[in-house]
Specification:
Helix content: over 70%
Shape: elongated
Distance between the termini: 37 Å
Number of domains: 2
Order of helices and strands: HHHHHHHHH
Radius of gyration: 30 Å
Strand content: under 5%
Length: 227
């Protein structure tokens, strides 16, 4: 039997020919690393097995993509004051970060995108811009109010209330129809991965059977007849 059946495939060599199924914002190097890891784990031998492993890689990658999309959407929704799942703690922290980075323009650009209307009114009424000598001092007063007053008030709510608010936020963000679609998508991807694994196992088994049959044929000795 050829020695090639005893050698592990070179994952880097195989992965180099894989077409990365990536979209803008995704890392093709991460895709290649996943593909290489699966090659090391599943040890494909030949074009058909390599194709099955690539299909498995794409399925796992798409599952990760869906999860990344959901994570980003959750973050966007919880930082949007107009969304039912808006998290005022997150909104205030994001706004403080913006104010610290760019005090000259952050309020005009980000206040309405990060804060509820009542929070904006509170800050503008308590700290009129004309009462301060400079924008830097005005921005620092707003930052101090958020850190020393608004954030501590929100952060000290009862644990039970925090849990209920979190569940309500999740329900608002991930509606039932969306949740069912997510489950259906996961089931389709899992089924695709399972089919590819089954195909890989069947291909390996068939090759093994053919190899054993060939070895048995080679070792059969011709019978000798006596006249």
């Amino acid at each position: 039997m050829s020695d090639r059946h005893h050698r592990r495939p070179n994952a880097q060599k195989h992965a180099v020919f894989a077409v990365p199924t990536v979209v803008p914002g995704e890392d093709p190097i991460e895709f290649a690393a996943l593909h290489s890891a699966l090659i090391e784990e599943l040890v494909p031998d030949g074009a058909s097995e390599e194709d099955a492993v690539l299909t498995i890689t794409k399925g796992i990658w798409r599952k990760r993509r869906v999860q990344r999309f959901i994570d980003v959407q959750l973050m966007i929704n919880t930082s949007d004051p107009s969304h039912p799942s808006y998290d005022p703690l997150l909104g205030l922290r994001l706004f403080v970060n913006r104010m610290e980075r760019d005090p000259e323009t952050a309020f005009e650009e980000y206040a309405s995108r990060c804060l509820r209307a009542d929070m904006m009114r509170h800050l503008t009424n308590k700290f009129p811009r004309l009462n301060f000598d400079s924008t830097a001092k005005w921005a620092q007063a707003i930052i101090s109010e958020i850190k020393e007053s608004l954030l501590p008030k929100l952060d000290t709510q009862e644990p039970y209330v925090a849990i209920v608010c979190g569940l309500a936020s999740s329900a608002a963000t991930l509606a039932w129809d969306t949740f069912k679609q997510e489950l259906a998508r996961d089931e389709r991807l899992d089924a695709m991965i399972d089919r590819a694994i089954k195909r890989l196992i069947q291909t390996k088994a068939m090759k093994q059977m053919l190899t054993q049959a060939g070895m048995e044929t080679t070792h059969v000795r011709p019978t000798t007849t006596i006249a």
